[in-house]
From TrEMBL:
Residues 41-186 form the Protein SirB1 N-terminal domain. It holds the Pfam family TPR_9. It comes from Oceanisphaera pacifica. Gene3D superfamilies: Tetratricopeptide repeat domain. PANTHER family: F-BOX ONLY PROTEIN 21, SI:DKEY-261L7.2. It comes from the Bacteria. The lineage of its organism: Bacteria, Pseudomonadati, Pseudomonadota, Gammaproteobacteria, Aeromonadales. This is Tetratricopeptide repeat protein. Belongs to the UPF0162 family.
Length: 270
């Protein structure tokens, strides 16, 4: 059984970038050695970019995008989009492949290091990045490194929210590092569940509950994972919490049946 050994102080201070939080996730999932390897890869990437721009006095957002998605070889992983490797920042740095949120984390970090203004945008269904400020800014798809038109974003929104969805300023608002982390952990949790890596999915639930400890839906998801990992008492406790907090949710009736079934199963000690 997975030991969810997460420091109670890991999110006490707001980090300067989402990259720090993504590295914290790597350490929580795979240990300090894996984090160290990721930091080495990140430093090597910075040095590679510095050499690429050695003869330029000023570096623009377009310059950075051209380098990252050109000679440096970063790209969206079309073929293995739902792979766990695309969610773990150490693997993204190693393979130079990822999904929108992880490639955005890399891009935001590099923009910060090279003094280029950039913001993460929690767009529905597809994380985006704004590079530049004011009327000179552009919204970038970090999966391709290309700028998006407003019409393209409208189509993307309808794909995520339905044909009646209307593009609003809230869809293009800047999000904080902790909000980026929440997005990353939710995507990672889904990927781990898809690949039946339930202990790692459970760790993602634990980390999400560090961010929002009273969220009944995270408790519900953790309960389902505990159930599949044969931790019946822990599953029942999470299901009971969800039922108390969301008595009118249709899932509550299902969970009541689940709890009766769990009560009839002998406890397994872990």
């Amino acid at each position: 059984m997975l030991k969810t050994n997460i420091s109670d102080t890991w999110l006490n201070d707001e980090p300067a970038s989402a990259m720090t939080l993504a590295l914290d996730v790597v350490e929580s999932l795979y240990g300090l050695a894996e984090r160290d390897q990721a930091e080495v890869a990140l430093f090597a990437l910075e040095q590679e970019l510095a050499r690429h721009f050695a003869e330029q006095e000023q570096i623009t957002g377009h310059d950075l995008l051209a380098a990252v998605f050109g000679p440096l070889g970063f790209a969206g992983d079309w073929e293995r989009f739902f792979s766990v490797d695309n969610c773990v920042i150490s693997e993204v740095l190693s393979r130079r492949r990822g999904i929108p949120v992880t490639l955005a984390i890399v891009l935001l970090y590099l923009c910060e290091r090279f003094n280029i203004h950039a913001e993460g945008i929690g767009f529905p269904g597809h994380f985006l990045v704004r590079i530049g400020e004011g009327e000179h800014s552009e919204i970038i798809d970090p999966f391709t490194g290309k700028a998006l038109t407003r019409d393209k974003m409208k189509l993307m929104l309808r794909g995520a929210r339905g044909n009646l969805a209307t593009l609003k300023p809230v869809h293009l608002a800047q999000v904080s590092p902790s909000e980026i982390l929440t997005r990353l952990l939710n995507v990672s949790k889904g990927a781990f569940i898809h690949h039946q890596q339930l202990e790692q999915a459970l760790m993602c639930c634990e980390l999400l509950l560090k961010l929002k400890p009273d969220c009944p839906f995270e408790r519900r998801d953790r309960g389902f994972l505990y159930q599949q990992l044969d931790c019946h008492q822990l599953a029942s406790e999470d299901f009971e919490y969800f039922i108390e907090q969301c008595p009118d949710d249709p899932v509550s009736d299902v969970l009541k049946v689940q709890m009766l079934a769990l009560d009839s199963i002998p406890q397994t000690l872990h």
